[in-house]
TrEMBL record:
Pfam families: Dabb. It comes from Miscanthus lutarioriparius. Residues 7-101 form the Stress-response A/B barrel domain. One of its GO terms (biological process) is pollen tube adhesion. This is Stress-response A/B barrel domain-containing protein. It comes from the Eukaryota. Homodimer. The lineage of its organism: Eukaryota, Viridiplantae, Streptophyta, Embryophyta, Tracheophyta.
Length: 107
């Protein structure tokens, strides 16, 4: 199957300045809860920028989700739990980048 194999879904977020830490914590818990709600979502990790290079362009948070396939990401995007979450998450973002990729080793 063309879309088979693990796929990582990376979201880089720059939140609007008026988003409080409490609201951020609530949103991150909501994002993490999608693992239990969406069968194709196998794992979720997140973190904040700790780079000393200052190349983040204002993006402060990274959210990484793991899926079983590209079809799994499509199921996730269309899943009612994700749609509901996106409707509260996206409006608090000043800027966002999303990249999906298949991890590849150098042989």
């Amino acid at each position: 199957m063309a879309g088979g194999g693990v796929v990582k879904h990376i979201l880089l977020a720059r939140f609007k300045e008026d988003v409080t830490q409490e609201r951020l914590d609530e949103l991150i818990r909501g994002y993490a809860a999608l693992v239990a709600a969406v069968p194709s979502m196998k794992a979720f990790h997140w973190g904040t920028d700790v780079s000393i290079e200052n190349l983040h362009q204002g993006f402060t948070h990274v959210f990484e989700s793991t899926f079983e396939s590209t079809e799994g990401i499509k199921e996730y995007i269309e899943h009612p739990a994700h749609v509901e979450f996106a409707n509260v998450f996206l409006p608090v973002l000043d800027k966002v980048i999303v990249i999906d990729y298949k991890p590849t080793s150098v042989n």
